[in-house]
Design goal:
Length: 225
């Protein structure tokens, strides 16, 4: 571009710098468009060839699970099952945080909860596989799981729930020898930077305090035998 520079050398230098930066931006945008086009083309090529593209996964770590597993006495994860011990010690229900008992199934508070109010529903029989549980036990577990949701709604007013069973140690079962179902109340924002980055969970209530509330509401709702 032609321009008069006599007597205004400073302005010409400024113009040169601006013009250079403009070219750099254009080149940068051009490279970005080319890279994006290459990525899209690679995706189409992979799809047409039937090959799969690698996915980038994000991991959410739950280090507090190790604390729970290590808290079990040697052999307690299988042979000396704490769930069996709790069932056989009704006189220690408050100490063991047993919420209520059915005929074949009972409800325990998780000592290391993912969220406030995390419950475990377990049969009295020491079985670790779905096919080993009897029909009566299975029906009562289903009913007690439903009632646990009702109890937590009455007590804590959660916005949602995670309900599930981990079968086998590789699937995350802390006590693989004794089948149990997790009922985890959820709130928007309960998984945040404190847990993901700081390895810290904020549980706003003591186990004993919540246990007193849950047991009182279980009686109020007519859930106890």
């Amino acid at each position: 571009m032609d321009r008069e520079c006599s007597g205004v050398g400073g302005i010409c230098n400024l113009w040169d710098r601006l013009e250079s930066r403009s070219h750099m931006r254009l080149e940068s945008r051009s490279h970005m468009r080319a890279a994006l086009a290459d990525t899209v083309d690679s995706g189409y090529a992979a799809a047409e060839s039937g090959s799969t593209m690698a996915e980038q996964n994000s991991n959410l770590w739950a280090p507090w699970r190790l604390e729970y597993i290590q808290s079990l006495a040697p052999g307690e994860a299988d042979d000396g099952c704490f769930i069996c011990r709790y069932w056989e010690e009704p006189e220690n229900d408050r100490q063991n945080h047993v919420v209520w008992r059915g005929n074949r199934v009972f409800v325990i508070m998780n000592r290391f909860p993912y969220t406030n109010g995390h419950l475990l529903i377990a049969p009295s029989r020491h079985v670790g596989e779905m096919q080993a549980i009897g029909e009566d036990d299975l029906m009562e577990m289903t009913r007690v799981t439903r009632d646990s949701v009702r109890l937590l709604e009455e007590t804590l007013h959660p916005q949602g729930f995670n309900i599930g069973t981990n079968l086998g140690r590789c699937a995350g079962a802390g006590v693989p020898g004794h089948l149990h179902t997790h009922v985890v109340p959820r709130w928007s924002g309960d998984t945040n930077y404190m847990a993901v980055i700081g390895d810290v969970r904020v549980v706003p209530q003591s186990l004993d305090g919540l246990h007193d509330q849950l047991t009182a509401n279980a009686v109020k709702l007519g859930l106890t035998v």
